[in-house]
């Protein structure tokens, strides 16, 4: 099987369509989303519709939970909060219901999927260094966990020859057969923040035990214009060009 892992989509339909087309051309059979399907972008309903159409299995992100009023937006910056409020008005009951039924963690035969961390998925903690990943790496019963949340693609690993040492890699190809544990942040489809504005997504080939971290160029101008046309904060359009 070839799994397609979709990082934080954030209502960016132009990026999502381009990424799904690309992953399908790479032989992906099944898609998964690591959450934050809505928030920031101008097409939350269309993104949910496309995920439903493609039978994407997803977990819940903090922006999804905020739209559902399951968590407070108290700690969101003003632009993020405005986008959450705007998004709530766009989603109909069916889309809200679809979001509300998303689990916090998906456990597949080969890997787990979560938005933030596996040890406390409801808290939406950020993994920004190797120390932050240790509780999840300790918790993992399967060797692989895919996540999102920081919008920065990175793989944090424990090697087979020294399972006490946690390290990270930015390599675009991860050979899982060489690793004891891998916590893989797949980056963001709809709002990358590693100064590379191209959409990020990963392919997990369960036959070869390889994960391919990919970047995919898409029509950023179109996504940005949709954000401006929707009356959302213009900074949410501008940042897409910079990948921040
Ligand atoms: Zn996000």
Structure description:
The chain has 244 residues and is α/β, with parallel strands linked by helices. It contains eight helices and twelve strands. α6 links the parallel β5 and β6 (144-147). It is globular. The mean pLDDT is 96. It binds zinc ion (ZN). Zinc ion is lined by residues 8, 10, 36, 61, 63, 149, 151.
Separate helix tally = 8
Residues in β-strands, percent = 15-25%
Helical fraction: 25-40%
| Average pLDDT level | 96
The rough form would be described as globular
Q: Based on helices, strands and strand pairing, what is the structural class?
A: alpha/beta
Number of DSSP strands? 12
Cofactors, ions and other ligands in the entry: zinc ion
State Rg. 17 Å
Element-level helix/strand string: EHEHEHHHEEHEEEEEEEHH
User: Largest beta sheet, briefly?
Assistant: 6 strands, mixed
Q: pLDDT under 50 segments (min length 5)?
A: none
What's the N-to-C terminus distance? 33 Å
Strand order of the largest sheet: 3-2-1-11-12-9
Which helices and strands appear, and what pairs or packs with what?
Blueprint: E1 2-6, H1 13-25, E2 30-33, H2 44-53, E3 57-58, H3 62-67, H4 78-90, H5 93-100, E4 105-107, E5 112-114, H6 130-139, E6 144-147, E7 154-159, E8 162-169, E9 173-175, E10 179-185, E11 199-205, E12 210-216, H7 220-229, H8 235-242
Parallel strand pairs: 1-2, 2-3, 5-6, 6-10
Antiparallel strand pairs: 1-11, 4-5, 7-8, 7-10, 9-12, 11-12
Helix pairs in contact: 7-8
Zinc ion (ZN) binds at residues 8, 10, 36, 61, 63, 149, 151.
Keywords:
244 residues; 6-stranded mixed beta sheet; globular; 8 helices; alpha/beta; binds zinc ion
């Amino acid at each position: 099987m070839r799994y397609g892992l979709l990082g934080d989509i954030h209502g960016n339909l132009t990026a999502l369509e381009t990424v799904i087309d690309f992953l399908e051309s790479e032989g992906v059979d099944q898609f998964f989303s690591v959450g934050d399907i809505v928030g920031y972008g101008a097409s939350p309903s269309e993104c949910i519709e496309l995920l439903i159409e493609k039978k994407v299995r997803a977990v819940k992100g903090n922006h999804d939970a905020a739209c559902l009023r399951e968590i407070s937006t108290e700690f969101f910056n003003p632009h993020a909060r405005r986008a959450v409020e705007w998004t709530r008005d766009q989603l109909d009951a069916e889309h809200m219901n679809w979001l509300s039924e998303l689990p916090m963690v998906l456990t597949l035969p080969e890997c787990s999927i979560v938005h933030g961390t596996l040890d406390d998925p409801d808290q939406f903690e950020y993994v920004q260094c190797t120390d932050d990943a240790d509780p999840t790496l300790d918790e993992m019963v399967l060797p692989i966990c895919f996540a999102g949340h920081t919008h920065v693609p990175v793989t944090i690993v424990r090697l087979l020859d020294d399972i006490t040492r946690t390290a990270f890699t930015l390599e675009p190809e991860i050979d899982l057969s060489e690793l004891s544990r891998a916590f893989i942040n797949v980056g963001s489809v709809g709002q990358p923040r590693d100064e590379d504005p191209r959409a990020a997504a990963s392919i997990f080939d369960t036959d070869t035990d390889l994960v391919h971290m990919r970047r995919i160029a898409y029509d950023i101008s179109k996504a940005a214009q949709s954000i401006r046309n929707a009356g959302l904060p213009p900074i949410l359009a501008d940042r897409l060009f910079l990948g921040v």
